[in-house]
């Protein structure tokens, strides 16, 4: 089993892929080490959110994804 990371919007462009699989559990520090430095820099921004299993995390640094979970990296939403 593994954790699936989904890159959405501009984060997909930075990552150069739609998603990636990582083995085992995934916490905040491991997420930052796993993605590219450009994506990690964006994740550190307050405007970028993370959802785990469909729930947006109030504190993204508390991420703890288990085998089989899906983690979505959510870029800022623009509106007009």
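^ Assign residues to that structure.
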């Amino acid at each position: 089993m593994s954790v699936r990371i989904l890159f959405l919007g501009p984060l997909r462009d930075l990552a150069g892929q739609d998603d990636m699989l990582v083995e085992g559990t995934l916490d905040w520090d491991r997420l930052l080490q796993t993605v590219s430095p450009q994506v990690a820099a964006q994740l550190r921004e307050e405007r970028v959110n993370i959802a785990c299993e469909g729930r947006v995390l109030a504190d993204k640094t508390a991420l703890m994804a288990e085998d089989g979970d899906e983690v979505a990296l959510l870029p800022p939403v623009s509106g007009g």
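The radius of gyration is 12 Å.
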